[in-house]
Amino acid sequence: MSVPVLLLLLYVARRSKGIIEMYLKAHVQARTEREQRATMVAMAAALPDGGAAARFEEGQPAWLFYKHAEQGRMVIASREAA
User: For residue 13, what is the enclosing H or E element?
Assistant: First the structure.
């Protein structure tokens, strides 16, 4: 093999590595957020007579989860905090 072909292969390998790292980082972040949200929903569901649970990021509320218990019907709602 010649030197230009080897340099091209090295460039392609480095670019591929960067793309894979970006994909894995996005995948891990999405999975973490999904698990955190599931935990908050489970925590709100565990409230006996309704109420709210908040998720904080950097000292500020990020998500609010509410459990409404009206006439035997329970509803869990969430919204992004302002």
Answer: helix 3-45
